[in-house]
Amino acid sequence: MPFIDVTIGLGRSPEQIRSLIHELTEAAHRAIEAPKDNIRVVIREVPETHWAAGDVTIAERRAAR
């Protein structure tokens, strides 16, 4: 049973999240012939203030632009 776990920044619409789930499911189905009913997808949305690289949050990077 494939389990796809995605972490993204907050800010996508419900339609975008739904589309991502659909596309990931289809990709796993095509790539490894997993039955769609066996594919699990979890989308975790993280606030931009809680995600950092190099000690700089996404929110700080955006503000610096």
TrEMBL record:
<protein>
    <submittedName>
        <fullName>4-oxalocrotonate tautomerase</fullName>
    </submittedName>
</protein>
<comment type="similarity">
    <text>Belongs to the 4-oxalocrotonate tautomerase family.</text>
</comment>
<keyword id="KW-0413">Isomerase</keyword>
<feature type="domain" description="4-oxalocrotonate tautomerase-like">
    <location>
        <begin position="2"/>
        <end position="60"/>
    </location>
</feature>
<dbReference type="InterPro" id="IPR014347">
    <property type="entry name" value="Tautomerase/MIF_sf"/>
</dbReference>
<dbReference type="GO" id="GO:0016853">
    <property type="term" value="F:isomerase activity"/>
</dbReference>
<dbReference type="Pfam" id="PF01361">
    <property type="entry name" value="Tautomerase"/>
</dbReference>
<dbReference type="InterPro" id="IPR004370">
    <property type="entry name" value="4-OT-like_dom"/>
</dbReference>
